[in-house]
Amino acid sequence: MIYLHIRRACQPFLGLMRPLSVLLILFWLFSSPSAHAQASYQSIPSIRLAALDHARAASPADAKLDGGRIDERLRLAACAGPLSTRTASTSASALSVEVRCDTAGWKLFVPVGVSVQVPVLVATRGLARGDAVSAADVQVQMRPRAGLGLSWVGSLDQVLGRTLSRPVAAGSVLSPASFAASHLVRRGQSVTLVGISGGFEVRAQGKALADAGAGDRIRVQNMGSQRIVEGEVRADGSVVVPL
């Protein structure tokens, strides 16, 4: 009898608890996956930040970084330790950064654009083949390195007085290929002939019969015997002739 009285007294409260229980179950179903995901997956911003920090450390101080784009739908297990990074590959305009979690066993390659401005020498007017470059013909400008190819000229000291091997349009960037090969020896110049046989060397004075650079073959007239011989120009300007 006492149990029945208690049950009747609590009946209104039991009626209220049923919808409350349903609400609690619905809340758990819809809210817990999100909370669970946040706890179980590595956040995309943390991966992006790790990649950008690595790229910043690996790039010149004045470089501009762009990228670190990662698909926001990506789900990687949360890392229990710090993320590791390394440069996977490089180009003139980008880095591929490997972001790795050793504890969770995953790695991701994140592309980061790197824009670096470098000083280049630009023609201020149209220059013809055979022109010797003067200070009035060029000026230094800052240009993105990515569009310059493999080589360029960055200062006047590198080219002052050198002869162009091809025409250069106004506004064009000068490269080493724009110039004729520099010559160590000029036609008519006095040179040292070095005759080599076994471990012995014989030296004589000669006259170059053509322009030549280091490593080039050149004909030289021996000033003593008046004979014309052929040899190879060395870096010091002498000409080696095998005996």
UniProtKB/TrEMBL annotation:
SMART domains: SAF. InterPro entries: Flagellar_FlgA, FlgA_N, SAF, SAF_FlgA. Belongs to the FlgA family. GO terms for biological process: bacterial-type flagellum assembly. Its main location: periplasm. Residues 1-37 form the signal peptide. Keywords: Bacterial flagellum biogenesis, Cell projection, Cilium, Flagellum, Periplasm, Signal. This is Flagella basal body P-ring formation protein FlgA. Involved in the assembly process of the P-ring formation. It may associate with FlgF on the rod constituting a structure essential for the P-ring assembly or may act as a modulator protein for the P-ring assembly. GO terms for cellular component: periplasmic space. Residues 118-180 form the SAF domain. It is found in: Periplasm.
